[in-house]
Amino acid sequence: MQENDLLGEGLNLMVFGMGFVFVFLSLLVVAMMAMSRLVGRFAPEPAPAAPRASKAPAATMEADDGELTAVMTAAIHRFRQDRNRH
């Protein structure tokens, strides 16, 4: 084969390959849009639920915050100690 024939075959293969991928992806986009419309028509989104009020009293939350703060402080202190050893 000559170089021109080989180059022509390569370009031909490239055009057909890229064309096939473009057509396939275009069909995929169209199919996804059609399925989205079908789902929206036959299964609409449910209405959002109203937010529920918290049942825990405020005093319990304050005690938990103190304990959480102590745990976080201890974890940070431990992390800094470990980091300084290495």
TrEMBL record:
Which cofactors does it use?
Na(+)
Which keywords annotate this record? Cell membrane, Ion transport, Membrane, Sodium, Sodium transport, Translocase, Transmembrane, Transmembrane helix, Transport
EC number(s) recorded for this UniProt protein: 7.2.4.2
User: According to Swiss-Prot or TrEMBL, what is its membrane topology?
Assistant: Single-pass membrane protein
**Single GO biological process annotation from the record:** sodium ion export across plasma membrane
Q: Which InterPro entries does the record cross-reference, listed alphabetically?
A: Na_pump_deCOase, OadG
Reactions catalysed according to its record: oxaloacetate + 2 Na(+)(in) + H(+) = pyruvate + 2 Na(+)(out) + CO2
Where found in the cell?
A: Cell membrane
Designated name of the protein: Probable oxaloacetate decarboxylase gamma chain
Organism expressing this protein natively: Cobetia crustatorum
